[in-house]
Amino acid sequence: MGIIIAILLFSFIIIFHEMGHFLLAKANGIRVDEFSLGLGPTLIGKEIGGTKFSIKLLPFGGACMMGEDETTDTDPKSFNNKSVWARISVIAAGPVFNLILAWIMSVIIILAAGYTTAEIGEVTPGYSAEEQGMQAGDVIKEINGRNVHIWDDLRLYTAAHPNESSYEIVYERDGEEHTVQLELRQKEGDVSPLLGFVSAGTVRPGILGSLEYGTYTVKYWITYTIESLRMIVTGQVGLNDLSGPVGIVGMVDEVYQAAAPAGALVILLNLMNFGVLISANLGVLNLLPIPALDGGRLVFLIIEAVRRKRIPPEKEGMVHFAGFAALMLLMIVVMCNDIIKLF
After folding, report:
1. In the chain, pLDDT over 70 holds for what percent of residues?
2. Does the annotation mark 172 as catalytic?
């Protein structure tokens, strides 16, 4: 059951991405040849308003076919015959819709279960925080110049920068801000180094607060993705630590199995939380300037907007094909790692 849910969740997120392309294409009067749920051979298809809506054999993701790679289409509604700014909006809409979906799910989660506040609930004796005079009730505002809105912001920074000699913490007490320098310390029995304080717990902020902290949650996952990419580039994380569709399905199944005894609501909230991670990741990764991804196409469109002349489509197509081939090779490597991990 968990595997089926994982496939449906992943497909829904991809379809929402493609819906962004579709809606902006229609808004700009661009012809959409096909909008499909799934990949592979068509099982069911029907043309409505000039667009073929279809369900494919393989239940993974979907596609919005606009003829982006066609070079000889004379139709005024063709993607390539529209203004560069119209095309930019259509290409950017997919990743933006992923971030919007992540925000919607974050708001629902916070409305139902709250968020972990950046207020300190307890200071642990023998660590740096106690030595610097921090107390329960202090609200952490910054760590090394980076804003902290939720507890995860703090945990992410220390996890991504474990070798910092010290951390400059700005906290608020009775309306006044104070700054201290803290050091991670690992005592006997500690699983990992600690600064010496824990969160006051979960807060449910109401409707307006959920809208606000839903935004902070998406910001956290965007930062999480960027930090993960930085750690890959710098060698802190290797290819063996990456997961593809097989690994994601396995992780979602684990989330489902762990949450199942607690009931349907807990299952739903846990799966939505995982959905926020996937959707925010897809939004950020698709904006990277990598050929074949939306970000790669945006690079060519921005260059066209600046120089007011289009790069020859055949040259752009060759670049995207090379990028696609490289991505497929990476996906094969990651998938092999995922399969090896299963055994």
Report:
1. 93
2. no
